[in-house]
Amino acid sequence: MALHRKRRAGTVLALALALGLAACGGGGGGSSDPIVRVPEDSQDLNLASSNYETAGRASVANVFVPIGVGDVGVFDPIGAAPWLLRLSVDLTRRALRSPGTPLALLLGIQLRQTLPCSGGGSLVVSLADSNSNGRFDNGDGIALEAQSCREEDGTVLQGRVSFAVQSLSGFIDSSSYGATLAVTLSAFSATRGADTVQGDGTLNFTQTQTPTVSELKLSTDFMMFSGRQDGQPFTTTLSGVKLTLRTETVTGVSRTTISYEGQISSSGLGGKRVIVTTPQPLVITGSDRYPSSGQLMVQGNGGSALRISSVNATQARLEVDAEGDGRYEAQTTKSWAELK
What we know:
This protein has one domain (9-339). 14% of the residues lie in helices and 47% in strands. It is mainly beta. The longest helix has 16 residues, at 80-95. Strand 12 (305-310) and strand 13 (315-321) form a beta hairpin. It has a 14-stranded antiparallel beta sheet.
């Protein structure tokens, strides 16, 4: 059974009761690309007409889903890792909203509370106020430990997510603030029916806000995800990832720019690796849900490449260069929604 993205109603409600948290509320393809001869590496995927659509979907999902672009795709071997990252980002944003709540002001040095989840199980919330000032600031931390925590949609959360504050300035949700946290997943998993995904590793989270610009940066040196879908095991690893989402207003119109670089290895890609970059940042304008301009480049073994160019705010063009000679032998056009 697929696990669709739903509001984490039970867990969020329990977390809100404990912490007073609120939910966070033109085609880019040129005629040619420079030819860069890349040495062959057996761990890299040989991009070809037989697999480039799958590689494109994996790449788009890992760029879009963690930052909430469009609708979150179904829970499957390709979408599961970014889906769990998205949940981690949501939890981080909620954790940032804890300063100044009545409960936080009464923290003292540490608070540990066990709360029931809506469908059974429990959520253990631990807060460490290292300087005893009753605020969530530099050096402080929050840990959430899900113990068979079942939500209203049937999802069962297990394991631990911890948030360590590295820097914090201004007031969260004001016109100017900045926050950097290290978010660590320790055997943190989500299960629905026979399908499950577990994440381990540390995600670096930075959120800044000025009167004119909002920016979110996510990065990780290494994160591993594993699970089962339809009875079959799968794994995904992310390494060297840097993802930036920048939103500003240009001549009265909202403009969101997405930049990405990183390596993705997945059993959905036959256990092989691809390297993904945005040579032309993806740009979402106004109320559009997907980019109307920009380009993703996916590099595989021996210089093989996949170019994903925005055609418009609903479609993207995929072109594959299987020989690594700068000539794209096959192409197709897909909706952005199909790719994630």
